[in-house]
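Pipeline run #58 for the internal structure catalog. This entry was flagged by the ingest filter as a single-chain record with no existing model, so it goes straight to prediction. Upstream metadata was stripped on purpose; only the residue string is passed forward. Reviewer on rotation: M.T. Logging verbosity set to normal.
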Amino acid sequence: MSRTDAILKRLSQLHPKLIDLSLDRMLPLLARLGNPQDHLPPTIHVAGTNAKGSTIAYLRAFLEAAGKRVHVYNSPHLVRFNERIRLAGELVGTRRLNAALELVEAVNHGDPITFFEVTTVTAFKLFAETPADYLLLETGMGGTYDTTNVISHPLGTIITPIDLDHQGFLGNSVAEIAVSKAGILKAGAPAVMGIQRDEARPVLERAARRLGVTPLWQNEDFHGSEQDGRLVFQDESGLIDLPPPALPGPHQFDNAALAIAATRHFGLPVDAAALAEGLRRVTWPARMQPLREGKLRALLPPGHELWLDGGHNPHGAAALARAIAAMPPRPLVLIMGMMNTRAPEDFLEAFRDLHPAQVIALTIPGEENAHKAEDIAARARAQRFPARAARSITSALRAAAEIENARVLICGSLYLAGDVLAKNGTRPD
């Protein structure tokens, strides 16, 4: 076990619950550290169910193309914890990370605090002591009581599409979940809204109105779409003809447009040339990521495709299915693993029209709360998918190799995606 893993293991034992949404534990700890959250560079706070990471990836690409130094906070990580904290453009170094974690651990004095709370406090300390031009801050879960929601005066807020996810913590309806997500909105901070379901929009409108905020709404105040292979963006300031996003899938045109709208609405120093350069070089691992080489890729014949995506809820599955449907047709093999907080049949619903898709089910390695492979396969068969269980990703890929000219998609969980990247030898950064 590495020193970082040993520290993180100790921190994970400070609270009996992995998730316990509250700000009451971390605010005193932040105060003892000098309230680093009050000494951050201009911050863009992003909440939503899906597309948070992609939206931040675009914003980072735009700002860096414009020559700006950017902090980023994302979760979860795929392979190494360091991926969660990017300081002025670079992933935090292990020595510096360990020193910061141990300092925060010492200041906390063993008080009850969740893993995400104490690691977020550590990130704020690192962000506050490292010069940068902007901070792109992703919520972990929800909004109102999310550990990131201690920024009093963000430069701007973004709420990406809201859908059903984490119902046990955020509510059993899209409207209830929207109440939580709306908690990041702040008086005096401009807001941009992604495409929302009918149940979410009035909730967000009421929250914004109470704060005196007039948001920009996607597909109403601004539009972005694919035209002749290009991204055409339009808002009240005019029209921009841009190259397509480097991230694959039709949904990435929506995500890129949301980030462009935020860039313009928040007054970021990004011109059309920087937008174009950012679209060309944006990266975001495990989101329709093609794996063209590596130890696992070598298990498939040259004519096969191998894709990796960490989407794990119905909204993410729908975007994934649209991306697959836009490709030239091939036999589709879903290598699928999921945590037991998700329903495999809900995820597979999006792929009904892509029959005869085959499912090879996996138990996610090292995750005690993962669905068993046999359970996923049985549920897939109940949905009339040809399905079988496999012991490992290696055996799953060998089975997929027997299907001629297949398009193989590994999906269902970011935890599975991280395991695949590590075993393939692909660095997520």
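catalog note: The domain at 289-424 is CATH 3.90.190.20 (Protein-Tyrosine Phosphatase; Chain A).
catalog note: The mean pLDDT is 94.
status: ready for reviewer M.T.
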